[in-house]
Amino acid sequence: MVSWDVFACIIISLVLMLVPVPLIFIMLWRKKGLPVNSFFSGAAVFVVFYLVIRFYLTNSLGDSSLLSLFLSALVVEGGRFIGLAILPGREGRNNYSLKTGLSLALGYITAAFLLINAFEMAMNLVYAGALQGWGILSDFLNRFPRESVDRVQLMISSTPSYTYLLELLSLYLAVPVQLLLTLLVFQFYRSGGSGPSRIVWLVGAVLLNFFYFQVGSFAAEPGWLTHIIFLLLMGVLSFWTVMRVWKGEFIDTFGTS
Asked: Which of 122, 162, 171, 250 is deepest in the core (most CB within 10 A)?
């Protein structure tokens, strides 16, 4: 049996994975004119470069190998640049505006939330409901291997409810990092993408991506506490960097004047 607090935490986490980021984009699109094509380009970057190409790399080289992590970082950040480069040059908006970079970041984050995290949380709800005896969900899970279903349901029944909220927290702490990564690549894109000083932006994004996932995997090994502390530090540092470097543009873009 599954206790009510597990259901509550799963549902809360699912809703907060599904709703806020797309809603923020819709509000900014309506009020500040964020470009829609950049948003969908960011979502496409996540699907093609993170889900497909990165998945192939990690399967071929192993999740934890340094080469796999570095190539994954290179693929994803290169994908962000391609996502920016294929945007239409004439769309009634300036592709070099901060709105373009922010919109692509929100598209990437939305796709990550919906296609991985919200989907996984929705499946947790299905497994928990079937374990609780909800017939229609039990019938649905009968299509899957019994051993896999039993393993997941055992994990759900033995997992503390707050774990789902910690997973939600870890996602939101990663948002400033993803924003910083996107803006670093965006800076490389609008600088023309050539010259030693301009290359620094893309190299910085690749190295930050590599460092974030490499150290993050180590920080997760001892448990949730070290993982959350690492994510919190990285989130705060990333937000500080974004505001330090692009604060003026944020004020110009989102000011009330």
From this structure: 171
